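sry for the spam today, last one i promise. struct tokens for design, 561 residues
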């Protein structure tokens, strides 16, 4: 068993008793909830624990627990609050939903596995949009909406549900009590041990246990998988406690509850901080550098490209404009009549090329924003200008032929590949002989060898991307290499960074888990990663540097595993 010594400093808050020997009892309210739109048709019992010390003039801390109110949990909360070992918390104990059968003498449809074991944001949305507002209104409670004031817990499937809730929205829940968590292959939970290692660490504190003879079935071995989750949390620098307990499934659910609550709430109201992240993530990010909002209010900011000075250009086709972000971060309009361009790229001579799905034209612009048609009849999504004057375009000659990749030289078009579901962003490797093309409707970025005449051979579904449970595809859009040889991909999971040999090693989620539709590295020192999310633009400083047709040939080096 992993033994961790923790010193708890009692604190006084929100009207707690000065005498720890006095144990005021909170009251329990219950209701049947049938109004869910996120889980339509379901009904469930909800129990609400309202502590005696509650001060309605201040936002109250919240503890949410799956599978309803278990015996003694409210009594333990009474004691912890009275002894000032945790803040005053309102408890919300929620049973899983059932869809009642309209037929007598048969089973209702149980929603527990669907709600608890499923990855994605359905359950946290259910809490934030439905249950917690309902509880607050029904009982006239002033509940905090700060994630630092919220804790969530459960056992088995309720345990992975608690972790997934915080994982999806650490801004809404930052403390997790997880007993015998079902991180197994019911609905993708077995991927968590890998996701934790690949994703930039989040501000979550976790209390995790499993039994040394925990459950084993077709979905996996709970003892082994929970130990793997513990190792992944340690690997990525999370603040957590793990106990391998003597016993079977769910051991410690009640007996460890007080210890878990004291650990999770220690030092409150100091915020829970994110850990350092895994080694490969530290190869990309810089300590203390996080996402910052650059600008907002666009319709579809997309297709970014960087020039030799570090100035980043991007399109907003709905507004028919091309904008630029100078090296000081200021944004201005490059051209008011952009031909509805949606993809941009600079060649080695500083010319800006754009392609438009709407008009089917490739346009080349001078430094003053004056454009002229370079090629026609190619409805491209993205464009890449190579160092030798060749252009590569993803798209097609018509809406029926959109799964193509074209090469354009001196206005002449050559089809170089077909058969992709929805080709998107294009990038060339630092050593110039490999081309990467994202496929929006898959989990892949294709890799090709560029021949001496510019045609493509040796096609492979080479780069493997994460696809979140709520989606069927990665929705990969623009891609770019850095000079260090990493491939960055804009996806619905954030910015994914792939290693030299193909797999995603790093996932950088955006604030609010926004879908990323464009990425580019630029700035004065060529080390600012820009992420475009349709109406918003974000940036952060990284360790990588801009790569473009204007940068010198760079030898690829073997990356780390």
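last one done:
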């Amino acid at each position: 068993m992993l033994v961790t010594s923790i010193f708890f400093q009692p604190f006084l808050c929100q009207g707690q008793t000065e005498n720890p020997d006095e144990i005021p009892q909170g009251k329990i309210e219950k209701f049947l909830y049938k109004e869910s739109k996120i889980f339509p048709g379901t009904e469930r019992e909800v129990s609400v624990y309202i502590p005696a010390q509650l001060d309605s003039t201040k936002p109250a801390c919240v503890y949410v627990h799956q599978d309803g109110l278990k015996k003694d949990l409210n009594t333990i909360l009474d004691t912890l609050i009275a002894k000032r070992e945790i803040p005053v918390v309102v408890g919300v104990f929620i049973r899983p939903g059932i869809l009642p059968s309209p037929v007598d003498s048969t089973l209702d449809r149980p929603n527990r596995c669907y709600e608890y074991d499923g990855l994605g944001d359905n359950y946290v949305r259910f809490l934030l949009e439905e249950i917690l507002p309902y509880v607050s209104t029904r009982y006239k409670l002033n509940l905090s909406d700060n994630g630092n004031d919220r804790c969530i817990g459960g056992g088995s499937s309720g345990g992975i549900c608690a972790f997934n809730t915080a994982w999806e929205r650490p801004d809404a829940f930052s403390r997790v009590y997880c007993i015998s968590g079902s991180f197994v292959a019911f609905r993708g939970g077995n991927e968590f041990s890998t996701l934790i290692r690949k994703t930039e660490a989040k501000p979550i504190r976790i209390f995790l246990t499993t039994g040394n003879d925990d459950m084993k079935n077709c979905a996996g071995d709970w003892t082994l998988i929970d130990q793997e989750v513990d190792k992944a949390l340690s690997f990525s620098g999370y603040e957590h406690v793990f106990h391998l307990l003597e016993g079977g499934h769910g051991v410690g659910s009640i007996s460890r509850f007080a210890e878990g609550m004291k650990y999770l709430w220690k030092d409150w109201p100091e915020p829970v901080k994110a850990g350092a992240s895994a080694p490969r993530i530290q190869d990309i990010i810089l300590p203390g550098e996080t996402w910052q909002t650059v600008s907002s209010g666009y319709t579809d900011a997309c297709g970014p490209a960087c020039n030799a000075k570090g100035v980043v250009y991007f399109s907003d086709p709905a507004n028919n404009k091309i904008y630029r972000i100078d090296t000081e971060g200021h944004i201005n309009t490059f051209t008011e009549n952009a031909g509805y361009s949606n993809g941009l790229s600079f060649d080695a001579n500083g010319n800006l090329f754009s392609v438009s799905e709407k008009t089917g034209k490739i346009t080349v612009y001078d430094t003053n924003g004056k454009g002229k048609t370079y090629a026609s009849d190619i409805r491209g999504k993205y464009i890449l200008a190579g160092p030798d004057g060749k252009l590569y375009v993803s798209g097609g000659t018509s809406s029926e032929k959109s799964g193509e990749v074209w090469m354009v030289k001196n206005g002449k078009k050559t089809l170089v590949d077909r058969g992709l579901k929805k080709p998107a962003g294009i990038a060339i490797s630092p050593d110039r002989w490999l081309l990467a093309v994202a496929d929006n409707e898959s989990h892949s970025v294709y890799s090709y060898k560029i021949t001496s005449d510019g045609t493509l051979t040796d096609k492979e579904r080479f780069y493997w991307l994460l696809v979140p449970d709520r989606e069927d595809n990665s929705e990969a859009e623009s891609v770019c290499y850095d000079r260090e040889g990493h491939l960055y991909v804009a996806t619905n999971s954030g910015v994914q960074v792939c290693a030299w040999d193909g797999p995603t090693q790093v996932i950088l989620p955006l604030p609010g888990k926004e879908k990323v539709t464009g990425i580019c590295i630029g700035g004065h020192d060529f080390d600012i990663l820009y992420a475009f999310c349709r109406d918003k633009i974000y940036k952060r400083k990284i360790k990588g540097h801009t790569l473009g047709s204007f940068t010198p040939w760079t030898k690829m080096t073997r990356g780390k595993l």
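Confidence is low (pLDDT under 50) at residues 1-8. ok im logging off now
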